[in-house]
Amino acid sequence: MTTWEGLGKKRSEVGKFIDRQGYSQEDLRQATGIGRTTISKLCNDPNYVPSPAVMKKLLAALREIKSDIRADDFFDF
């Protein structure tokens, strides 16, 4: 499992969250069924806002880790 925390990589709030929890982008991809390119954007681009369908899959997976997760914990609307 590879995480980027502390390696100077620019991470989004989603990326920082999975790093803190000890999950990799691949773990998130497998849990959500979201494609690698979109997972990369979710974890590395702080300005990326996903489609409603991607948001639903993402939040469902993240709520398995922490049940009170909300979209506005990660994205500015």
UniProtKB/TrEMBL annotation:
A Pfam family the protein falls into: HTH_3
Annotated HTH cro/C1-type domain residues: 19-63
Highest rank taxon of the organism: Bacteria
Single GO MF descriptor: DNA binding
Record's protein name: Transcriptional regulator
Organism for this UniProt entry: Jeotgalibacillus proteolyticus
